[in-house]
Amino acid sequence: MKKKYDVLTIGRSSIDLYSNDVGAPFEDIQSFGAFVGGSSTNIAVGCNRLGLRTALLTAVGKDKVGDFILNFLNKEGVETQFIPTYPKARTSAVVLGIEPPDKFPLVYYRDNAADIQLTIDDVINTNIADFKGVVLSGTALSKDPSRTATFFAAEEARANEVTIFLDLDFRADQWFDPRAYGVTVRSILPQVDVAIGTEEEILAASLQNSNQLTIKDQQISAPEISGNIDAAIQRILQLGTKTLVVKRGEKGASIFQANEKEQKVPGFPVEILNVLGAGDAFASGFVYGCLQGWDLYKSARLGNACGAILVTQHGCSNFSPTYEEAMSFAEEKGGL
Questions:
Q1: Strands 92-96 and 106-109
Q2: Per-residue CA distances from 39 to 61, 167, 322 (Å)
């Protein structure tokens, strides 16, 4: 049956203020560039630029930052009609430093965040049955009413045979206790067709004992998570998730399914400027491939190409590649 849209993403949106002083320590930054961000928003823009009919379910406040985000999305062609405005909440902001190759400090401003106000009614108004796939977000599970709305969205997707992707999206400082992330995300994983995350996110999703989770300098914004990644992967698969995709940065990605061997999908070597948002670009490419009927390897390979392109750029959504750009890049590097 033909669907009205290809994909719906649900979760965070923000204005991202990226340092214009590449390489400068955060405290020495002199100016910032303003872009649109938030993992769910980045994935929506990425999917749309690749050619999917895409809608975003987030929320904004009645403020200029919300206007900034909606203006960008409307120009991009992402469907925004389902995005509610919550006048008593604020649209989010993130401030980010760029110190390549491995320091990218960031600060979230998400007190009373509008996108956390998403409700069951917002999901109902979106009509998930109109979509081929839905991409849920780990951070959307951090507080109610967004948490309940996300679980409801998963129920609606399952009832209507809509493919469910979960971006594990672990942001420790958005949780009152990082262990709560694992407890909560494990409750939704049995509903999920494809989960996507880094090794750190997979460990956070699978571990529950206090002696398995240590907090660096007692700051939840900088978790240092220890554990056996192979055991963590198996635990997620045992919960019923059909496919788990592990993002491995410059090494590419790995695909895991129950009772199957790991599929290693090589990345594309590039010179790194900024890794922030690369995982969202990967998810965009991977979701595109899956919804086009590609096999998992080819889908992940396109995801790797999109991520590689983004790490050479200054920001996230604003620099997502088009399908033509991603395919041209991949062909130059050996193809998908």
A1: antiparallel
A2: 18, 8, 18
Domain of residue 29: give its range: 5-332
Pairwise CA distance, residues 56 & 292, whole Å: 19
Number of structural domains in the chain: 1
Q: Give how far the C-alpha of residue 242 lies from the chain's centroid of Cα atoms, to the nearest Å.
A: 19
Smallest Cα–Cα separation from 8: which of 72, 78, 76, 99? Answer: 78
* 299 vs 302: CA distance, rounded Å: 5
> pLDDT tens digits, residue range 258-317?
999 999 999 999 999 999 999 999 999 999 999 999 999 999 999 999 999 999 998 889
For 174, half-sphere exposure in the C-beta direction (CA atoms, 13 angstrom radius) is: 26
Token pair of 114, please?
């509008």
Q: What is the CATH number of the domain that holds 284?
A: 3.40.1190.20
The answer to whether 123 and 149 have CB atoms below 8 angstroms apart is: yes
Bridge partners (DSSP) of residue 95 are 17, 107
**Number of Cα atoms under 13 Å in the Cβ half of residue 156:** 24
The per-residue pLDDT for 208 is: 57
Q: What percentage of the chain reaches a pLDDT higher than 70? A: 95
- Percent of all residues in the chain with a pLDDT value above 90, rounded to a whole number: 88
List strand residue ranges (DSSP E) for 53-193, in order. Answer: 54-57, 92-96, 106-109, 131-137, 163-167
